[in-house]
User: Which sequence fits this backbone?
């Protein structure tokens, strides 16, 4: 796994302004979703990048990290932080990882910060990676494992879309869809459907293991980025209880 090239901590003001953070044309976003698939997929980035961490005023400076190494970091490694930015050194991609518990009541703070950064940086595409719980017939889910939904942009995969009336039990994803649609920032959701995680490595859940590997392979094909699957597989997810909000994908 490639080491970070710089290490900066940036503080974002209450209105989302930051003169130090500049996102590249395409942003890949992962968070501590149902199985931490988004986090584990993106934290496996194995090419050169510049590292930044963010402090958001609405969250404690002692905010816990939910996806972490199974051991104490070595001398050439760093501790994971709740809000991380991995800015690819040569490629036009920025990776943003929200690696902490986000109650439904606070999701809009994070999404508003992201919106401000995207608008300031003139981001051309915002891609969310997620594992979600949805209400669909089991026969449909047995046939389709991954999905892609787009708003104000074109598809990047051949995955089918979740039906527009699909109920999504994920406050972070729901908030992203609502606010990004209003702001008309090109948004792509690449999702896999799963069930609630238990504490432990990806390896402990075969579905999560497959989901992370599939997402990394797909991202490598459509972006040219490289990922360390073995590293992602070793990461541990500290599960937490969620307060779900429910919204239809196109409501």
Assistant:
């Amino acid at each position: 796994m490639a080491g970070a090239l710089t290490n900066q901590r940036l503080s974002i003001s209450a209105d989302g302004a930051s003169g130090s953070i500049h996102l590249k044309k395409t942003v890949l976003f992962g968070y501590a979703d149902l199985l931490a698939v988004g986090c584990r997929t993106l934290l496996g980035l194995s090419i050169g990048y510049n590292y930044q961490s963010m402090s958001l005023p609405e969250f404690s400076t002692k905010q816990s990290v939910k996806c972490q190494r199974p051991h104490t970091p070595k001398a050439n490694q760093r501790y994971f932080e709740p809000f991380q930015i991995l800015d690819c050194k040569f490629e036009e991609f920025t990776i943003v990882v929200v690696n902490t518990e986000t109650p439904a009541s606070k999701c809009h703070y994070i999404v508003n910060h992201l919106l401000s950064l995207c608008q300031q940086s003139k981001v051309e595409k915002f891609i969310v990676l997620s594992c979600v719980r949805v209400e669909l017939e089991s026969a449909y889910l047995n046939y389709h494992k991954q999905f892609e939904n787009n708003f104000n942009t074109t598809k990047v995969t051949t995955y089918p879309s979740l039906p527009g009336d699909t109920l999504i039990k994920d406050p972070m994803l729901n908030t992203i869809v609502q606010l990004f649609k209003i702001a008309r920032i090109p948004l792509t959701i690449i999702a896999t459907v799963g069930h609630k995680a238990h504490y432990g490595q990806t390896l402990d859940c075969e579905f999560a293991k497959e989901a992370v590997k599939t997402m990394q392979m797909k991202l490598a094909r459509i972006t040219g980025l490289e990922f360390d699957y073995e590293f992602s597989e070793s990461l541990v997810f500290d599960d937490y209880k969620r307060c779900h909000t429910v919204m239809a994908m196109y409501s």
Q: What stands out?
A: The helical segments are 37-42, 107-121, 138-143, 171-183, 206-223, 229-234. The first strand starts at residue 4 and ends at 11. The radius of gyration is 17 Å. Residues 4-248 form a domain with the Rossmann fold fold (CATH 3.40.50.10900).
